[in-house]
Amino acid sequence: MRFLPRAFARLLPAGEGGAPLRAFLKATLLLFVATRLADAVHAVCGLWVVPRWIPPAELGAILPMLGFGAAVAVPFGVFLTVFVRSYARFMARGELRRARQIGRWALGLSLLLAVLTPLAAWPLLPWLFRILRTAPSAAGALAALYGLVMAFLPVAASALQARKRFGAMAAANLAGAPLRLAALLLLLPVLGMTGYFLGQLTPALVTLLFALWVLGRERREPCPETPVAAEPLGRADLREMCRYGLRILVGNGVGALGTFAVALLIRARMTDEASGAYYLLTRFAEIAAYCTTGVTAVLFPFAVEAHAAGRSWARTGAFAALAVLLGSLLLAGLFLLLLPPLFRLLPAYAPYVGAAPWGAYLTAVTGLNMALSVWFTRCSAENDFGYLRYTVPLTGVNVLLFWFLADSRLQTSLHLLFVCALLQAVAVLLDLTLRRLRRKKAALREAERLARDPETRRFTVEEALQELKR
Fold it and tell me: What pLDDT does residue 9 have?
């Protein structure tokens, strides 16, 4: 860790330093550079191409439709997380045959879910179009097709993540972004909203094909014939995976449904122009989330591996979350100066000039949410789901706040989003404080026991506490 500043090194416990931390930082930097280049292209798509060809009356319907797709794809998200964690654990322990066996199961289950999810979503599309005030079109069918592609994408992409093939992930990002831009430029002027979803499919297909090609080459590599590697998956493995998946289902399912409900209420309560302005501001605010994607993609397998070895990456996770938050606040300050003149310069932004000053506010709120997501990623990687005790009830509180308080004004919804994020942050801080107090109380009781024990009576309580720390 000689290349790290001394102040940064002090933030990391001894178990998190050395080669794993250097590999983590190197992979994070690689993905950060690659995804930032890809995100620059995606930003051109979201900030210029889409508002140029999608009218204000339909622009605000994009986010609820994406939220609907995320909600119906919750089984994929649960399966993805369980697969990544199990695959990373097996690879870390050298159980290569188990890793490949679960990979084959993952492919079969993803095929089943790929058929069931569009069938379950199809009857809901007329209701969705009616709430969103948009005419039924092929966009609904393409949303279902997008879910179908996303059924296969997580399996292949997560295998790359679990194997720490971050170079392949970076290459897929760099290839998919320009192709999405080209697809949008060709299809949006002709097909409108339908062309938008076709453009969304393009990078997903590129990532899927690229990942399958890389994994297909690795599959031909021989598997070492060790006793552990030769053992198949057992019932104990499946029971542990089911328990873990149930917890993820509760967290991800409630979160996805809550996000969709909030996006739907924002569109339903706002005017077409206000909801279009909200969509445009989220494209700028989403820039605050760009670095989060690379951090969480790298943090999860490293945290799983460290947990399997008996170490915790809690302090590294906290530092990563803090870095995401500070970066988002700096970006919000930049947007406070740049967005108002930018909105006045671009003709496509003319209907939304009055909303430009709120972009910095939404960016800061998004940054807080992204910092929380980094922390929750670290918790789930270490099988610590204590945060579900407060995130699940708070999601219901968020939906109720929007149900009773949201109106046609943009600023009302932005204030409610800030209140929701702040409640989550306060809950996290309270949880960490209570856990620390419980650990101190347990250490004090153990120190008093050592001080009373005849075999360790030579220790005072203070000396016993120091011995426990060592």
Answer: 43
Average pLDDT, the chain: 77
Q: CB 298: neighbour CB atoms within 10 A?
A: 25
- As a whole number of angstroms, the distance between CA 21 and CA 18 comes to 6
Residue pair 266/413 in contact (Cβ under 8 Å)? The answer is yes
Whether the CA torsion 234, 239, 244, 246 is positive or negative: it is: positive
Rounded-to-integer distance, Cα 347 and Cα 158, Å: 41
Say which residues have a Cβ less than 8 Å from residue 113's Cβ, sequence separation at least 6. 75, 76, 79, 151
Measured in Å, how far apart are the chain's first and last C-alpha atoms? 22
The DSSP element (H or E) to which 200 belongs, if any, is helix 193-219
Q: What is the pLDDT of residues 41-67, one digit of tens each?
A: 877 887 788 888 888 778 888 888 877
3-class DSSP state for residue 94? coil
* Nearest Cα residue to 36 out of 284, 294, 347, 228: 294
Residue 312 half-sphere exposure, CB side, CA atoms within 13 Å?
Answer: 9
Check whether 218 has a pLDDT greater than 90: no
d(CA 408, CA 266): 8
* DSSP characters over 215-248: HHHHHTSPPP--HHHHPPP-HHHHHHHHHHHHHH
Tokens 């506490």 correspond to 465
For the whole model, what pTM was predicted?
A: 0.71
Inter-residue contact 464 to 447 (CB < 8 Å): yes
